[in-house]
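Render this sequence as a predicted structure.
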Amino acid sequence: MPKPRDYKREYKSYHKKPAQKKRRAQRNTARRKMTKAGKVRKGDGKDVDHKNRNTADNRRKNLRVVSKSKNRSFSRKKKK
C-alpha cells in the first residue's frame, strides 16, 4: 500500500519556493484572461494550456482551452 502524501513537506520543499509561486501566478493570469474572454468557466473541467509550454507567455495566440485529461497527458519532459 502506498504511503499517503505529506502535503506540508511537499509545500515546504517545492510549492513555497519563489520561482514556483511566480509560475503559479502566471498560470492563474492565463486562466483569468481566458475567463474574461468567455472561453472557460469555473468548474467546466477545462484547462488553459500554453502551446509553447512557457507559462510567462500569456499572449492570446499562445493559449488554448483543452480538457483536463488531455492537458495532463502531455509529456512534460524537456527534449535534449
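Summary. Residues 18-71 form one domain. Strands lie at 46-50, 63-67.
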